[in-house]
Amino acid sequence: MSARAFCLTVLLAVLLFGAAPARSQTTVAGGLTLEWIYGDEGRRVASVPAHAWLSDGRLLLLDVRRPPEERTFEILEPSTGARRPALDMAAALASLKTLLPDSGVGPSLDWPEALDPSGRRALYVFKGDLFLLDLAAARFTRLTKTEAEEQSPGFSPDGRRLAFVRAHDLYVIDVETGAETRVTRDGSETTLNGSLSWLYWEEIFGRRDIGYWWSPDSRALAYLQTDESAVGVSAFVDFRPDSAPRLITQRYPQAGMPNPRVRVGVAEVGRDTTVWVDIKDRPFEYVLRVKWLPEGRRLSVQTLTRDQHESGLYFASRETGAAVRVLTETDPAWVNIHDDLHFLADGRHFLWASERDGHYHLYRYTTDGRLVNQVTRGDWSLASSGAGVFWVRQAVVGIDEAGGWVYFTALERSSVERHLYRIKLDGSGMERLSTEPGVHRISMSPDARFYLDNFSDRRTLPSLTLHRPDGARQQVLAPPRPELLARFDVQYPELLNIPAADGFQMPARLLKPKGFRPDRRYPVIMSIYGGPSAPSVSDAWPAGLLAEQLYLAEGFVLLTVDNRAATGISKRLEDTVAGRAMEPETADLLDAVRWLKRQPWVDPERVGVYGWSNGGTVTLSLLTRSKEFRAGIAGAPVTDWRFYDTKWAEALVGGTPTENPEGYDRAAMVKRAGDLHGRLLLVHGSYDDNVHPQNTQAFADALIQSGKLFEQMVYPMRKHGFADRAAQIHLQRTMLDFWKRNL
Among 368, 369, 381, 729, fewest CB within 10 Å belongs to which? Predict the structure, then answer.
């Protein structure tokens, strides 16, 4: 869900704590400033090389830690550790300049839009057109030159073809000859072929424009066709140009309104026909996933009902479209989306993830839908280790079918850590491979012979190491670089647990100023997010730690807390918030602040609360359901779930507004505006196409009607997350100015 987060670890820390005073630039030891933190050097401190595994088991690298003028692509041979340049960067840039003098590319190329599986070719989009880079020859070829932009390019498995979307239709280009084939012909503003509507891009595919899927033989495309004609239209008004401001429209289905209608088709490249997947046994609302079986004669399609209580997995014929239901998942709250469907090479089995026992675990099935065995089990959950959005899960990182091993990441050791494990397909022999306490983000080679470990903890900058499948370290590719921070005298957080009223231990992260004295009383700012299985607390390098130093320099103590449903520990805990109007989250977090106020070093009269997106909504819940906080900042909050999208609002509140009007009334913050306690700053971007500005405007109007004073900051034409450096810095200065005046 979009309101659930916006890169949580970055958002809660960077948006809150990257602050400086309104009229001057705050510095701390060594000259640490916002300008340095948000500059190129500051952004590279915690980076590791960009990388991709190639089909032959080698590794392609781009070390973004180096200055741009020193970067190039490299090839690493894992078995020997040999590392060599894969591209003459200067020659490639010269080649591009001859084709497109005004490309806007600086002293080095960024990571490409797409790579062919062998790593021979990379695809870039410049000025809306496609450019193909031959890495060995360091030569660009221009593939398209059209008025319409080309989008969502992707190579076929054999690397000989490239698919893309133009004006809502699918096309294929032969990369050797440049010959272009049109695959669909009915695309329009409301009929999308191979690309996603906003709802599917955000809520279902996790901000990835994945709307088509190559067959294993590279001869056909399965694709999603979307009909948005019945979806309501929202509008945003630009402030430029002066004479006639631009009107931007977006098709956005609010709770209870019609959704995009979708269907899955299969088109053989070179034929002008589509075979539509025919699902007849039960009605469905959403298509969650499409994936080919390895034999290429069938494809899998996952569906979800409108109430989100039931999901079906189907196998459909490539030739006829006839679909057979293989299995069904149900949940009394909602069924979560995952990418842990993995077909085994034996052609007879697949792995499937489910939360049916209250935790996220793996199961092995035969392709006719018979359960063979539960692979993982216990009072812990598998968890994603990568950098994707939290509401789309993927825990399996590799499968060694010959050896019988499945590799995955999980919370088995702790909910604030991520570790790598392996287990036999029959569920025996589970062992933990990662050793250092902290968070291990894993990327495994296709043949499961090696893996990369991007590791950090709360005091250790990220590093990138190469390992063998038994966990043995093979090579350090990018060590942590603490020397870059040595002059700043950084203060590091401590992890602790805060007890709820019933004894549940809520994970928390605490930062204290340098020279902290327990006999003094400090102002405290509590940051929250609170969304289901959306933890903010982890034993990883904190994305906003450097900016937080500026807050510490002003004498603030910083606390981040996860209520129980946010921890990701289990689906049972997540489901406790379903249909309950944010009351469970609020109760847990009020327990946390009351515990906080009992600490002798806390000034109980100077406690503030902050959150963005879902955290902004929870902030308003805390400020209207208690008198515990002196002040709060709510960034981009959902204030009435009738304003939010169908997929998440209907799951969280329970049904549509027509089916459950009382539930929507209970969950609406606008109806609680008159109960506001403490000072409030509302912040929103005027072009927030995720949580629409309507939310903040409605709450502001309700405050006015109630006679409540408040402050508001609107950022012109910024979206849900502020991408430009100037707005990021200005936002932080605005917030710290508010805190200093009110705490």
Answer: 368
Looking at the predicted structure, is the pLDDT value of residue 57 above 60? Answer: yes
Q: Using an 8 Å Cβ cutoff, are 358 and 350 in contact?
A: no
Residue 14 pLDDT > 60: no
Q: How far is CA 434 from CA 81, 438, 440, 452, 507, in A?
A: 21, 9, 7, 11, 22
Nearest CA to 415 out of 573, 230, 192, 197 is that of 573
Q: Which residue has the tokens 């709060």?
A: 632
Report how far residue 36's alpha carbon sits from residue 26's, in angstroms, rounded to the nearest whole number: 11
Distances in Å between the alpha carbon of 334 and those of 172, 289, 330, 386, 583? 37, 16, 8, 23, 18
Judge residue 521's burial from the number of C-beta atoms within 10 Å of its C-beta, 0-12 exposed, 13-18 middle, 19 or more buried: middle
Cβ neighbours for 469, distance < 8 A, ≥ 6 positions apart: 398, 400, 405, 407, 422, 448, 449, 450, 451
pLDDT at 16 over 50: no
Angle among Cα 62, 67, 68 to the nearest 5 degrees reads 65
Q: Identity (one letter) of the amino acid at 522?
A: Y
Alpha carbon distance 664, 47 (integer Å): 42
Domains of the chain, start order: 2-43+483-742 (3.40.50.1820)
d(CA 472, CA 223): 41
Contact 216, 292 (CB under 8 A): yes
> How many residues can be counted in the chain?
743
State how far the Cα of 125 lies from the Cα of 142, in Å rounded to an integer: 10
CB atoms within 10 A of CB 105: 15
Residue 385: which pLDDT band, with cuts at 50, 70 and 90?
A: confident
Strand partners, 497: 507
User: In the predicted model, what is the mean pLDDT of residues 157-171?
Assistant: 98
Q: What is the mean pLDDT of residues 534-547?
A: 94
Q: How confident is the model at residue 133 (pLDDT cuts 50, 70, 90)?
A: very high
Instruction: Please list the active-site residues.
Output: 613, 688, 720
Calculate what percentage of the chain has a pLDDT beyond 90. Answer: 92
Provide the greatest CA pair distance for the chain. 78
> Could you tell me which residues come within 8 angstroms of residue 315 by beta carbon, excluding any fewer than 6 positions away?
293, 298, 299, 300, 301, 323, 324, 326, 367
pLDDT band, residue 439 (cuts 50/70/90): very high
User: Beta partners for 133?
Assistant: 122, 140
Confidence tier at 10 by pLDDT (50, 70, 90):
very low
- E strand or H helix at 532, and its extent? none
pLDDT band at 25 (very low <50, low <70, confident <90, very high): low
How is residue 220 written in tokens? 């056909």
Q: What's the CA gap between 394 and 409, in Å, rounded? A: 9
Structure-token pair, residue 425: 């397909």
pLDDT band at 26 (very low <50, low <70, confident <90, very high): low
Contact present, 720 and 613 (Cβ < 8 Å): yes
pTM assigned to the model? 0.95
Residue type, 231: V
Please say whether the beta carbons of 131 and 125 come within 8 A.
yes
Hey, what are 228's tokens? Answer: 């948005």
DSSP state of 366: E
Neighbours of 76 (CB within 10 A): 22
Distance CA 450, CA 49 (A): 17
SS3 readout for 210-252 = CCEEECCCCCEEEEEEEECCCCCEEEEECCCCCCCCCEEEEEC
Cis peptide bond upstream of 241, omega within 30: yes
Residue 429 pLDDT exceeds 60: yes
CA separation for the pair 724, 721 (Å, rounded): 9
